[in-house]
Amino acid sequence: MADAAPARLADIAGQAGVSEATVSRVLNGKSGVAATTRQRVLAALDVLGYERPLRLRQRSAGLIGLVIPELTNPIFPAFAQVIEQALASHGYTPVLCTQSPGGATEDELVDQLVERGVTGIVFLSGLHADTTTDPDRYTRLAGRGVPFVLINGYNDRVEAPFVSPDDAAATRMAVRHLRDLGHERIGLAVGPARFVPVLRKVAGFTAELGEGAPVRHSLFSVEGGQAAATALLDEGCTGIVCGSDMMALGAIRAARQRGLTVPGDVSVTGYDDSDLIAFTDPPLTTLRQPVRAMAGAAVTTLLEEINGTQVQHTEFVFQPELVVRGSTAIAPQRASG
What we know:
Layout: H1 6-16, H2 20-27, H3 35-48, E1 62-68, H4 75-89, E2 92-98, H5 106-115, E3 120-124, H6 136-143, E4 148-151, E5 162-165, H7 167-180, E6 186-190, H8 196-209, E7 215-217, H9 222-234, E8 239-242, H10 245-257, E9 267-272, E10 285-288, H11 291-306, E11 315-318, E12 321-323, H12 332-336
Parallel strand pairs: 1-2, 1-3, 3-4, 4-5, 5-11, 6-7, 6-8, 8-9, 9-10
Antiparallel strand pairs: 10-12
Helix pairs in contact: 1-2, 1-3, 4-11, 7-8, 9-10
């Protein structure tokens, strides 16, 4: 790549927004280029599909484990990508570990990572979020000298930094949005009640609507959302707040199976806002998890722990954002009135 043809240099320079001379300096390992500019040139190489010269390939500062539940829900790959980019920018090599039914458990994955000498671990929506599991596994991990950070799911019995979205605020925002549209019968479709984010979503929902408001627990999946929404439609709900975008897609399916339209007859909100959700039919109104900010905070906190900086073992809470699209509209009775 150091002897790249002029056409290639021009392509890379155009992509990076720098001069061809700057590209040449970076590719040939010359000094005098700002770190941010160098990063832009390397990113341009990657985007255009060019292989980096050997001299520019970063030596790993160490391995960092990233333990996530699975990859079928697009919010998890979204988190993984941002976390991996942030780690790589600091010289660390991410090791992605996913769980699937019948596969390796979180404890087995952690054992494998520790045996391979990882420098630290990021847990995303792991067992720490499940109120029925033993949190002592994280105490034991700390005892093995491995720093870690936990995303989505707080447990006050675990001495570690946590990064979470404000789940209660999210459902409150969704309910207020639907009420502003004239919906009087609003239901909540969420995952199993043993998970901390679910309990918080329920708390925010009932804070707005009272203890008697309809809540249906199911699986965090399209099928789970369909089952929960079916029950809520039976109760006369015209607005359905869902605990994930996948559940919201299931709720839309449930409405259509009844011959109802979304949003004409039923309004549906999701939660997460992964990249494809804007292109569903209809485009989904949802609460956006601040993925980039949360992932950045998790990586920064973990690296501070690795470097021996005293990090507060507390929960860092980030605010979700209501993104209004086409799956919510004025309630039927108000529209007809």
